[in-house]
Amino acid sequence: MHDDAAAGAEVAVLRLGHRPGRDERMTTHVGLTARALGADRVWIPDNAGQSRDTVADITDRFGGPFEVDLTDSPKAIIRNWEGQVVHLTMYGERVQDVEGEIRERHRDGESVLVVVGSEKVSFDVYEEAEWNVGVTNQPHSEVAGLAVFLDRLFEGEELESDWEDAEQRVVPMETGKRVISADSNDEESDS
Ligand SMILES: C[S@@+](CC[C@H](N)C(=O)[O-])C[C@H]1O[C@@H](n2cnc3c(N)ncnc32)[C@H](O)[C@@H]1O
C-alpha cells in the first residue's frame, strides 16, 4: 500500500488465465480492484492487453502509484516470488484463521503475492503456494475474493490511501456525481 507501514514489503496480485471475450471485464476488474484496495501492482496474462490498457488509463487519471504488466510466464512469477504466496481458492483454509499470520509477516517486511484464477487452476499452483486461502468455502468470484482478502490484510487502512499524480479526483457526496481536477482547490470549479 502507498503509505505502507511495512515499507519495502510489496503486495502484488497475479491473475492466472484469461479467456478472451468471456473474461475481459473480470480481468479488468481484478486489476482495478487490486489498485483501489491497496495492492502495489498486478500481473495479468499477455492475451489481456485491453484490460492492461484500461487499468493503466484509470491509474493515469485517478492516480497511483500502481503498476500493471502483462506476463507470459505466471508460474515463474510464483516460483521466483520472494515472500508469501497466497492463492485464493474456495477449497483453501479459512481466511479468518490465517489472516493474522499473513498480516503479521507482511508487517515484518515480507512481500505478498496474491494469486487468483479464472477457469480451473492447475494443482501445481496449490502445491507451490504457501497459503491456499478461502474467502468462505463457497464458490464466488476472484474479484470478490481479492477485495475481501486485501481489506483483511490491510485491516481497512487501504480505504484511507493517498493517491499521487492523479489528474482527477472524485468529490464524495450524498447525492450526485462530481469529478474535479486533482490540483483544484475549488470543488465547484470543474463540476
Ligand atoms: C470462478 S472461480 C473458478 C474456480 C474453478 N472452478 C477452480 O476449480 O479453480 C475463479 C477464481 O475465483 C476465486 N474464488 C472463487 N471462489 C473463491 C472463494 N470462496 N475464496 C477465494 N477465492 C475464490 C479463485 O481465485 C478462483 O480461481
Count of beta strands: 8
Mean pLDDT: 94
* Cofactors and ligands: S-adenosylmethionine
Order of helices and strands: EHEHEHEHEHEHEE
Q: In angstroms, what is the radius of gyration?
A: 17 Å
Shape: globular
CATH class of the largest domain: Alpha Beta
Under CATH, the homologous superfamily of the largest domain reads: SPOUT methyltransferase, trefoil knot domain
Largest sheet: 6 strands, parallel
What is the CATH architecture annotation of the largest domain?
3-Layer(aba) Sandwich
What is the count of structural domains? 2
Question: From the helix content, strand content and strand pairing, which structural class follows?
Answer: alpha/beta
Measured as a percent range, the helix fraction is 25-40%
Q: Fill in the CATH topology of the largest domain.
A: Alpha/beta knot
Q: How do the strands line up in the largest sheet?
A: 3-2-1-5-4-6
Q: Give start-end ranges of low-pLDDT stretches.
A: none
**Distance between the amino and carboxyl termini:** 30 Å
Separate helix tally: 6
β-strand percent reads 15-25%
Function: Specifically catalyzes the AdoMet-dependent 2'-O-ribose methylation of cytidine at position 56 in tRNAs.
GO molecular function, one term: tRNA (cytidine(56)-2'-O)-methyltransferase activity
EC number: 2.1.1.206
Subunit structure: Homodimer.
